[in-house]
Amino acid sequence: MSIELIIGILNIVLISTTPLVFAGIGELVTEKSGVLNLGLEGLMLVGAVTGFITLVLTGNYFYSLFLSIISGIILSGIFAFLVLNLMTNQIATGLALTIFGIGLSAMLGKKFAGTPIDGLNPYYFIVISFLLVFLVGYFLSKTKSGLIVRAVGENHNSAYALGYNVIKTRYLTIIFGGVMSSLAGYYISICYAPMWQEGMTAGRGWIALALVVFATWKPWRLLVGAYIFGGVAIMQMNLQAFGVELPGQFFNMMPYIATLIVLVFISSNKVRLKLSAPSCLNIPYEKNS
Amino acid sequence: MRYIVEFKNIFKSYPGVIANDDVSFNIKEQSIHAILGENGAGKSTLVKILYGHVKPDSGEILINSNLAIINSPSTAKNLGINMVFQHFSLFESLTVAENLILGMNENISLTKLKDKSKTICDKYGFNLNLNSPISSLSVGQRQSVEIVRSLLNNPKILIMDEPTSVLTPDEIGKLFKIIKNLVKDGLTVIFISHKLEEIINLSDYVTIMRNGKVVSTISTQNENPETLGYKMLGYKVSKVKQVSKINFSQEIFNIKNLSTQSKDPFTINLNKIDLNLKKGQIFGIAGVAGNGQKELMEILLNENDYEFSGDIFFKDLNINNLSTFQRKSLSISYVTEERLGHSAVPEMSLSENIFLSMNHKSEFKKGDFINFEKINSFASDVIKSFNVDTPSYNVKAGKLSGGNLQKFIIGREIMSNPELLILSQPTWGIDAGSEAFIKKTIVELSQKGVSIIIISHDLDELLEVCHEISVLYEGSLSNPLNVEDINITKLGKYMGGLFD
């Protein structure tokens, strides 16, 4: 195997993994505050199609990025309102958000499928993704605001009793997660592909969700995990190139198998899971009246 | 002295219950003011209203003679009101320092925090390691963290909700000294308790509450536990007295060298526990919460295949690997600490709850069908024999009050004719009437030859009904003490771990 080939593969891994980092780091912050948002896939798709359509119609990268982020804020804001104010079940609401996002993006993007565009250079986003992981890690472990986020996710009743606004904190983390997911989607349709195709995120939202557990809610582990997961996904193309005769479907399922194995491995160690998992994850918060 | 807090006609109701009914009284500045009442008398609701945790339906609170609208804990903290909670409001996985920072009104650097907390710790005699995670601390230490966290905000008023319920007698003494020093330095302390002697020892004034209403606010000077108790309950409760000095002979239940080696930092490892129980004996396991009671109960119940070494014998039969139902079939009965969700399913009727705990008995089944006729008549018997206040056996378990549900659960277990009954916190959080009834029932049961183990944090209860008491401390069980020649100092030392 030549050096060029190895560098080439690493390059592909780098480019293809970035959406996992974006979506994963956003969800990590959301979950740290105690909210499970299963809507990543939907948020990514809507972010992707919004950015793509705006770019096709206006030709302006800034507008397209801006509207893509706005779509993330609106959708995750709706999610936050449902689970925080109306106290709907987080899992059901998140699933609904995904299904809604898949449908909405397909409908909006129908006319635009296959339209050629000039993609953005992915390296800007790759650098930003690394920076983000570092910043989130710093924010959560070193700042008081980060401490409040962790406190709210650890024990929301105590946090409220100490005078913190649990709902406001969770609104902010949910919306941060939403924006990160739409950025992940934007990256896929504008930098990585660059094109629009129905369902083009291809399950990356789900992998990002698994990634947060895999990382036991630690930002730097999330980065490592993202590249392992990304690497597994890329293996499928390259092994085929080396003449390994296995059906393509086998490689398509590899990331999910890896996810399952990791999940089983992680949850077999109850202590580690308990020490790192936010205790109030997925528990609805009811304010005293 | 002027009044620092004035409650004016506070009214608060929840569906089906009036928690505070026209509550009015005043608290003098720089005093220790106790609020006394049974569980459910409305004490906690009232202080939660003062702390902005609960909104009153009507009524006013004056702080320093000014009307205060306290609609959240942060408003209360800005007014100088801080609270130490009964069930601590600490964050388990965070460190002491992080917990302290979270409690502070101002933003503060870590070095400054260290200085400030050190000043407070030195002055009042607390001992804290700022870098330990809360999960590694004992209950007493956790309470210290809570108190220091409140003091860091220089409060004017400190509310303490049942602060002694988790402490050893020794720790209680220390806490009272600290509270008295704090008051000397200008603090006003509102102290909630249902323990009469503590209130007389500690507080200057006491407001007595019953069924959400204020009975009276008096100085504690001329009171004694009997007079206060009568005012709290409105009637006298007679104590049961265990028959003394019996020579028990027949061994019925043995634990030999029971240990656990869990790596989970949230659990306590049991250390070489030995226990001998004889026929007709009541054996108490005392100790502050969180010293291994939960783990010991897990193993006695065997619901979750909790791993342990050592042996458990019931009538010379090794029951180590027997399931909960197999143990029940051997006539061992259990009453667990959690009434709703463990001992009973809140959403199911009393009859259905009978079947759930007794479906190992064939008489309640007709082939694969439930024999409701039998179960309903069994449920009626329990309700009648144990004075359970409920219109019928079709009522959902969750609708019963704590005391009534506990009478029902204990009745259910007793009527299954056990030879060994294991009870965890049998009278925790229930009204005095039900408590007295349950204690009397337990004593009578032992006189019929049933052996009983009671795991409880309530020393008075154990001293009242048990023949022998051991203390559980950090997973080790002390040698048994005969209740006849026990003294409270020795028991206090045991609870602090001072036994061989």
Could you describe the 3D structure shown?
The complex is a heterodimer of chains A (289) and B (500). By secondary structure, chain A is mainly α. Chain A has a single domain (3-276), classed as ABC transporter involved in vitamin B12 uptake, BtuC (Orthogonal Bundle), CATH 1.10.3470. In chain A, 76% of the residues lie in helices and 0% in strands. Chain A is built from twelve helices and no strands. Chain A has helices at 3-32, 40-58, 61-85, 90-109, 122-142, 144-154, 156-161, 166-192, 204-214, 219-241, 248-268, 270-276. In chain A, 44% of the residues are buried. By secondary structure, chain B is an alpha/beta fold. Chain B has two domains: 3-233, P-loop containing nucleotide triphosphate hydrolases (Rossmann fold), CATH 3.40.50.300; 251-495, P-loop containing nucleotide triphosphate hydrolases (Rossmann fold, 3-Layer(aba) Sandwich), CATH 3.40.50. In chain B, 33% of the residues lie in helices and 24% in strands. Chain B is built from 16 helices and 23 strands. In chain B, strands 13, 16, 19, 20, 21, 22 and 23 form a seven-stranded mixed sheet that branches. In chain B, helix 11 packs across helix 12 (372-385). The termini of chain B are far apart. Chains A and B meet through helix 6, helix 7 and helix 12 of A and helix 2 and helix 3 of B.
Features:
heterodimer, A: 289 residues, mainly alpha, B: 500 residues, 7-stranded mixed beta sheet, 16 helices, 33% helix
